[in-house]
Design goal:
Blueprint (H helix, E strand, L loop, with lengths): L1 H6 L4 H10 L17 H9 L6 E3 L5 E4 L1 H7 L11 H7 L1 H6 L3 H18 L4 H13 L1 H7 L13
Antiparallel strand pairs: 1-2
Length: 157
């Protein structure tokens, strides 16, 4: 597997993803898609004002957000089922306009999502989300088929 990674000139994130897809390692635990946002996390989020703060699960569902995030993203105006960051990014013109460099940023965000997707790829919900996005968004379709993987984001988004 390492030789394949070298020939393909994969970076560290791509190499880990290849191993995960090939089931060459035992995962410590499967990814959890459910989450209860505790009161302490909600308090920390509120204390981080005026910074936009929100919590996503591995599906990229928006589970919680502070007031500045709501004022910017209008999360409270989106029905719970559609309050998925990836869905909003690729299907809602308002979210497209929020990003000055939408193509570049959407591409990077999708590459980050793919890393999380690998942890729960067998999950029917996430498969349904990806299939709906493939049918709904030509941009998602094009970007998804490039198979890019990015490291965990270590900067403020």
């Amino acid at each position: 597997m390492d030789n394949l990674a070298k020939v393909l000139k994969l970076n560290a994130a791509e190499r880990r993803h290849l191993y995960l897809l090939a089931h060459m390692r035992e995962p410590v635990e499967t990814g959890q898609t459910w989450c209860v946002v505790s009161p302490i996390i909600k308090r920390i989020m509120n204390d981080l004002s005026p910074h936009l703060t929100y919590v996503l699960n591995l599906h990229w569902d928006v589970l919680a957000f502070n007031q500045p995030a709501d004022e910017y993203f209008h999360f409270s105006q989106v029905k719970g089922e559609q309050r998925n960051f990836l869905w909003l990014l690729f299907t809602n013109d308002y979210y497209r306009e929020l990003l000055c460099h939408w193509n570049r940023d959407a591409y990077r965000l999708l590459a980050s999502f793919r890393r999380d997707y690998a942890l729960v790829a067998e999950d029917g919900y996430i498969q349904n989300l990806v299939n709906k996005l493939l049918k709904t968004s030509p941009d998602f379709y094009d970007m998804w088929h490039k198979h890019e993987i990015y490291e965990t984001c270590n900067r403020v988004r």
